[in-house]
């Protein structure tokens, strides 16, 4: 008889050395698994000024050749205290042979992105393949996300954005530390 209160039989793993064994295609991104938290700076020519933000990024897997990806941000005041929730997004990074990555990423602001790119040597570089927008979303035409493992416990993140009629350019950069 099915027990609806039982534990999920296939929980996500946040560590390369914990079960289930990572799929071999995840080899180039194993260093990303886990929870990362840190601080970043952002801006865009259409905004009044630059801003500081906190960010948490989580990568996990269930033994199949894709990562589950989740990122949440919050704005910081001049003393680095939290001001308000900011962007969040989640998605799936589908690993292909030779470190190629196909990512699906959605945001509560009405933006759904398909990004493609490459993982290798401690870096992942993803650029827009396609963007779909809900009727009320801001116009976003392209993005580029770069993740770099500076060392085992430090992940840097850079994000470029083409939106509201402006060409692809810096919107965010952050340095994150592994928390678990
Ligand atoms: C760490 C993640 C992010 C943070 C902290 C952040 C922060 C901000 C802030 C503070 C603004 C000004 C409006 C407001 O106060 O809400 C803004 C505007 C905007 N952001 Fe982001 N953002 C992030 C990620 C993204 C992503 C992933 C995208 C697109 C894929 C994006 C696209 C935009 C657009 C289109 C605008 C509006 C620009 C305008 O209307 O002039 N942002 N962002």
Automatic annotation (TrEMBL):
Keyword Electron transport: no
Gene3D superfamilies membership: 2.40.128.20
Binding site for heme b: 46, 138, 171
SUPFAM superfamilies recorded: Lipocalins
Pfam family, one: THAP4_heme-bd
Region (Disordered): 1-23
Signal peptide (from-to): none
PANTHER family in alphabetical order: PEROXYNITRITE ISOMERASE THAP4, THAP4 PROTEIN
Family stated for the protein in its record: Belongs to the nitrobindin family.
Protein name, UniProt field: Peroxynitrite isomerase
Taxonomic source organism: Streptomyces longisporus
């Amino acid at each position: 008889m099915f027990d609806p209160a039982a534990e999920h039989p296939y929980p996500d793993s946040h560590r390369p050395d914990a079960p289930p064994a990572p799929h071999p295609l995840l080899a180039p991104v194993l260093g990303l698994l886990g929870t990362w938290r840190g601080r970043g700076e952002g801006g865009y020519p259409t905004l009044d000024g630059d801003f500081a933000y906190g960010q948490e990024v989580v990568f996990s897997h269930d033994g199949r050749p894709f990562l589950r990806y989740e990122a949440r941000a919050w704005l910081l005041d001049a003393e680095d205290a939290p001001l308000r929730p900011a962007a969040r997004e989640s998605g799936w990074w589908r690993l292909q042979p030779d470190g190629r990555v196909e990512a699906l990423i959605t945001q509560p602001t009405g933006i759904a992105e398909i990004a493609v790119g490459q993982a290798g040597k401690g870096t992942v570089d993803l650029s827009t393949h396609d963007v779909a927008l809900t009727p009320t979303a801001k116009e976003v035409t392209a993005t580029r996300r770069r993740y770099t493992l500076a060392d085992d416990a430090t992940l840097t993140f850079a994000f470029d954005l083409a939106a509201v009629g402006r060409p692809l350019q810096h919107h965010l950069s952050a340095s994150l530390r592994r928390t678990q």
